[in-house]
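Hi again,

Forgot to attach this to my earlier email, sorry! This is the prediction with zinc ion bound. I've pasted everything inline since the attachment limit keeps bouncing my files.
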Amino acid sequence: MRVFDRLDELYAIGGGTRLAYSAEEDRAHELAAEWMREAGLAVDRDEVGNLFGRRGEARVWTGSHLDTVPNGGKFDGALGVVAAIEAAERLRDAPLGIVAFRAEENGPMGSRRLTALPDAFLELHIEQGPTLERLGEPLGIVKAIAGQARGSATFEGRAAHAGTTPMGERSDALVAAAEFVLRVRDAAKDGAVATVGVLELEPGAMNVVPARATVSVDARAPTAGQLDALVETIGFELAWRQDPVPMSGPPLDALRAALPGAPELVSGAGHDAMVLAAAGVPTAMLFVRSLNGGISHSPDELTAGEDVELAVDALTRALERLVTTVES
Ligand SMILES: [Zn+2]
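Structure tokens for the complex follow:
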């Protein structure tokens, strides 16, 4: 299948490293532009470098991104673009817009700076988690993208000599922070997740009891109520919050019609689809199973060939229906 060759061609550029706005990302966009032209699409780019292949009025868009994290996998983003071009080939007469967004891994930057929006958006992406593999299901429908809350917590202690201050007389900021990290872990339940990913210590010397510890918190939950409760239970200073973004309207209906009985899940990762949905575009996502325990942002990222074929078929069926709905 042509899709696999194209994924290999993209992966060969930079060996899995195509950072935002790098020469490697540029090269991937040039390659995708060639494939779009072969599929009979008219190619154009916007001011920030997002790539479009359009046929007709193109009120329905599908696509994803071509940039990667350093040393990323073969499927993250790339599959959504390559499969979209394949679907456009199969739906030779359908008015469609195929999009490769810029710099998804840095923001996303490209999709946030769109100057024109479609009437509907559908994104195919690998799951990047283990849910579908555990369910034994090749494909899943995303019903919402998890809400996120980010911020930090600071703990004050007293700097003191590590050799001469008795244990019972210390005020150690890091010990307090360590208890907090365990509380963050225990607070996340029922599909919610919470992570401490950054730790800063002052003075940060091997022979000084820490006087101050600041830790980051990234908390995510499937519903706004759960997110509120999670933030409350952990107790930290909120810097940024986004409510869960529901998938909706004709794109979601089209996926459900194309895949009756498919499992529905909440995406813990953001994606370009989150940006379009938050901007008011009726949006849905199709997930395809990630193997190897769902690992992603790694060269070990893996999705089976037969699952990719099922995903391209389902995307094509859903787009065919969606184009008809939106046109009428
Ligand atoms: Zn991605």
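The two ends are 33 Å apart (CA to CA). The chain is about 35% helix and 25% strand.

That should be everything now.

G.
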